Automatic annotation (TrEMBL):
<protein>
    <recommendedName>
        <fullName>SRCR domain-containing protein</fullName>
    </recommendedName>
</protein>
<dbReference type="InterPro" id="IPR036772">
    <property type="entry name" value="SRCR-like_dom_sf"/>
</dbReference>
<keyword id="KW-0732">Signal</keyword>
<dbReference type="GO" id="GO:0004252">
    <property type="term" value="F:serine-type endopeptidase activity"/>
</dbReference>
<keyword id="KW-0325">Glycoprotein</keyword>
<dbReference type="GO" id="GO:0005886">
    <property type="term" value="C:plasma membrane"/>
</dbReference>
<keyword id="KW-0964">Secreted</keyword>
<feature type="disulfide bond">
    <location>
        <begin position="108"/>
        <end position="118"/>
    </location>
</feature>
<feature type="disulfide bond">
    <location>
        <begin position="208"/>
        <end position="218"/>
    </location>
</feature>
<dbReference type="Pfam" id="PF00530">
    <property type="entry name" value="SRCR"/>
</dbReference>
<keyword id="KW-0677">Repeat</keyword>
<feature type="domain" description="SRCR">
    <location>
        <begin position="142"/>
        <end position="245"/>
    </location>
</feature>
<feature type="domain" description="SRCR">
    <location>
        <begin position="40"/>
        <end position="139"/>
    </location>
</feature>
<keyword id="KW-1015">Disulfide bond</keyword>
<dbReference type="GO" id="GO:0005615">
    <property type="term" value="C:extracellular space"/>
</dbReference>
<dbReference type="InterPro" id="IPR001190">
    <property type="entry name" value="SRCR"/>
</dbReference>
<dbReference type="GO" id="GO:0031638">
    <property type="term" value="P:zymogen activation"/>
</dbReference>
Length: 249
């Protein structure tokens, strides 16, 4: 008798849950063969795009000392994980660590596709000082394309390292405002669902978004025949408003 198969819900895995928590019994006759080339990970964060940084070398994981890591290194890590640019880089954000530290300083140019592709130098370290292990938060990989500016157009999310339009069935201006703010594009002016042409957008669970979770965390492989068009005010309008208020005072 063949072994039973399990179905893994990918949106559950991307939210940071374990495989066991995301597995359900399935009658499928197709099994997945997976080869992993993981070299970095973020632990104890709210998603795969945030947490304490660890690097894999010689089959063991090591933390990274804050003094040996900078903004360009962070850009490479976020890119390697399929996340957006780094938004927060600070030690002790995601708990203390007693594991061994990475032995050398990273010297990334910022263009590399993987952290271990970067040059490294320096003397070996045995541990980081308390509160000095790197904590990193990468931004949600979201963009607007096809509009008059970067602050308007079709909403796309980088999911599984590929940009795809998404559909949110029940989304108000208040919900869309978080995307505009994330893109540094002011507030939301309009949001509408339009018929998709030539491709099938992924589906974003509106209840997940309303709970405050990131768009990619709420994205599923369920396809839709609709996509989201979003217009934001743009940063320049916010600047004008600020100047106007200062003049009134």
């Amino acid at each position: 008798m063949s072994a039973s198969l399990w179905k893994i819900k990918l949106d559950c895995v991307w939210s940071g849950s374990t495989l066991r928590e995301c597995a359900t019994p399935d009658n499928s006759y197709t099994a997945l063969i997976l080869t992993c080339l993981d070299s970095v990970r973020l632990l104890n964060g709210s998603s795969l795009c945030s947490g304490r940084l660890e690097v894999k070398s010689n089959q063991s994981w090591s933390s990274v000392c804050e003094a040996d890591f900078d903004q360009q290194d962070a850009e490479v890590v976020c890119r390697e994980l399929g996340c957006g640019p780094p938004s927060v880089l600070q030690g002790a954000l995601y708990g203390e660590v007693e594991a061994l530290a990475w032995s050398k300083e990273f010297q990334c140019g910022g263009h590399e596709s993987a952290l271990l592709d970067c040059r490294s130098s320096g003397s070996a370290r045995n541990s980081c000082s308390p509160g000095k292990a790197v904590g990193l938060t990468c931004s949600d990989p979201v963009r607007l394309v096809g509009g008059a500016s970067r602050c308007s157009g079709t909403l796309e999310v980088n999911y599984m390292r590929q940009w795809s339009p998404v559909d949110v069935s029940d989304w108000s201006l208040k919900g869309a405002a978080s995307v505009c703010a994330h893109l540094d594009c002011g507030s939301a002016v309009s949001v509408r669902r339009t018929k998709a042409t030539g491709f099938y957008p992924l589906t974003v669970r509106s209840d997940c978004v309303k709970s405050g979770s990131a768009l990619r965390t709420c994205t599923t492989f369920m396809s839709s025949s609709f996509m989201i068009k979003l217009n934001c005010t743009g940063k320049h309008i916010i600047s004008i408003q600020i100047i106007f208020f200062m003049w009134i005072e």
